[in-house]
Amino acid sequence: MAVAYELLRSGFPYYMTLGQRRVTSNPVDIGFGKENVYVLTRGGLGTEVRVINWEDENLGVRGGTDLFQWPAALLVDSDENLIVSDEAKHTVVTMDKNGNHMETWGVKGDSEGELNRPSGMCFDNEGNIVISDTMNDRVQRLTRGGEHLQT
Fold this sequence. Notes:
The chain is mostly beta strands and 151 residues long. It contains no helices and 14 strands. The strands form four sheets. Strands 3-4-5-6 form a four-stranded antiparallel β-sheet, with no helix packed on it. It has a four-stranded antiparallel β-sheet with strand order 7-8-9-10, with no helix packed on it. It has a four-stranded antiparallel β-sheet with strand order 11-12-13-14, with no helix packed on it. A hairpin with a 5-residue loop joins strand 1 (6-7) and strand 2 (13-14). Pfam families: NHL (PF01436).
């Protein structure tokens, strides 16, 4: 059984806090790489992916307002590419682990493959993206490049 490092004032145990001593405002999602932790933030003091490690060292930020307007979800693949859904732009953005933009896909609409406020995402067992197409009241399965597979 794991032993808690400390107790929060409310009495709940916690083991460590990451990102608290820097601008990590409004975290909305988190992803894990081989050695790094990726924290998606939006609004407040930053709209970006903050990168830290388990020693709580700040490794910088990826993305930003040039790529995201209202990011909602983050996926990290086996190569540590970062995939972010953006509810305001109705898009999905892919960056490499250094933050270099690889591709953006998605268009607002209600036809197959189109998105309206995409939010939560996960990978299926074949590496495709399953995404909550929030305002279209559906879930879609798309290739990594955004091609429609299933609704």
